[in-house]
Amino acid sequence: MIKTKAFAAYDAKTPLKPFSLERREPNADDVVIQISHCGICHSDIHTVRSEWGPAKYPCVPGHEIVGHVIQVGKKVKAFKVGDTAGVGCFVDSCGKCENCKANEEQYCQRQTVYTYNSYETDGKTPTYGGYSSHITVREKYCLKIKKSLPLAAVAPLLCAGITTYSPLKRYNVKKGSKVGVVGLGGLGHMAVKLAKAMGAEVTVFSTSPNKSGDAKKLGAKYFIISKNPKNILDKSGYFDLIIDTVSAEHDINPYLQSLKKDGTVVLLGVPPTPHKINAFSLIGGRKRLTGSLIGGIKETQEMLDFCAKKKVFSDIELISADQINEAYERTIKGDVKYRFVIDATTF
Amino acid sequence: MIKTKAFAAYDAKTPLKPFSLERREPNADDVVIQISHCGICHSDIHTVRSEWGPAKYPCVPGHEIVGHVIQVGKKVKAFKVGDTAGVGCFVDSCGKCENCKANEEQYCQRQTVYTYNSYETDGKTPTYGGYSSHITVREKYCLKIKKSLPLAAVAPLLCAGITTYSPLKRYNVKKGSKVGVVGLGGLGHMAVKLAKAMGAEVTVFSTSPNKSGDAKKLGAKYFIISKNPKNILDKSGYFDLIIDTVSAEHDINPYLQSLKKDGTVVLLGVPPTPHKINAFSLIGGRKRLTGSLIGGIKETQEMLDFCAKKKVFSDIELISADQINEAYERTIKGDVKYRFVIDATTF
After folding, report:
1. Most Cβ neighbours (<10 Å): which of A12, A301, B9, B149?
2. What would the CATH number be for the domain defined by A2-159+314-346?
3. pTM (2 decimals)?
4. Complex ipTM > 0.85
């Protein structure tokens, strides 16, 4: 077994603390990764605090993982020792259902095995995430990363990157597309960078007037303070696509009105209460409201390759393991530009 | 001017009464139609009762119109005297915006001129609908109907038919598609017939257990009593498309759950209060919620031709003008199988 140092939540209320665990020795199709960096995603916080249902404690969060391959199983072909690799939000799935076969393992009809707070396909072995020194993952669920890239800034692509890339690609964002991004946090800042890199004209909607400068620096052409719905309605009939990353309660009817005919609002955030949607907001102009959940392995690789080519990375603040709890508090307050990433050598 | 007998609402509260009006003599591109039949759509009732905002009184409703051409303007090419013609929900639009050019005049960016309770493009001449003996309409906004068809049963295709046909086509319903229809009224019964004619397997969701027999006769394979959400959830992950025709308050989250990945719920009805949508209902399985508004002239003609070929018509109850007010009360109670159509010779 591979001795692994980690940080874990032991319950919903107390700070994360050091934790030791053992990763499995590689099976024939496994890759062992020595983790170099792991991003802090807001969903880590929701999970360890049991805000999305009771967590399985001890809970080692983290699903924005990059590192170096130190061991491979005897049938592994795509990775060799010394390669740089990434792991995202899931580490296994059935591989046989129609969604897995369509390379959308995140919608596996049997069981998507999440990187943490989940069980392996045996239904009993808990999964532990990337706030740790090592991880063993099936080759098929690992991503290839160019060694020369700034790895700390690549880590958040594994969740924030793919989560925003997938709907931008799906709705065919290209040169000239008019894209709105609601909320400028971890997901939002990636949505701006990616949409811009695809050639879109980007507008950021935010409740924080002081984010205007950053929005423009990240690539947005317009910045709209969303507290007053009138500001949103000034763009009535304007957008092809709006990526809504906000998890706080907010009214999306004005965003639906700001879409062109056949335009789409994609929800990525999950507010605590249901959205209230007027049927007329959808019927007039045949607007669409949809959601999107991360992306499959194939699309995640495509995103990583796109980001490497376009030099799109996350804006990050690098921290050591002992700063995780402070980083959680700052993430909750939105006081981060735009992602905390843990230096995994500090576990 | 063409003397025209009609029925009109004079205010929101009192029954419709006889009314006389004059239709314009045909301009160069106009067609004058002697109306033979006009369907009663639930939106007629909402409109004349000012339930959708204050109506323009006197208000002559009716937008499911068929009849015979008795006069044509000198530049009219597509119609000649003696032809059978139809008029749907709108009678004009700008013709120049991108939506008009894309044959989607119902989404005209300047002004869709509705068949009644609207103004002509001059902004001041009121439009009067099909509860009348004659109507003068620009050739471009008239539909061609085969003389040999059962005209009374064709009339409802001009609204109920195209409103359901358009989303079925848009979402590519074909042999093997699994389609759900929520609500078995005027729109719902057309959705069932059309989806079946396109080759789909159709499931009807209704709160009325006694509609089961009818649903099957109309072409549905399954009938589900929707009062208990559990019944809907039994079909979790099942449907490609659900057409929701219900204008009463109801929870659509179970319908979203009953969709396959990338499936779509299309709203056609407008309940009095907003729908409450859990973001997770859309994110998990990347479900779509959308709406649809009638259809353009080109698509309406395509629908009429499809219905003629497939012998799909509305199930109707033919009434005379003096039965309109009684028909309204019965429509509100859902006591009609499935559309009242007025014999326009009785005005």
Report:
1. B9
2. 3.90.180.10
3. 0.95
4. yes
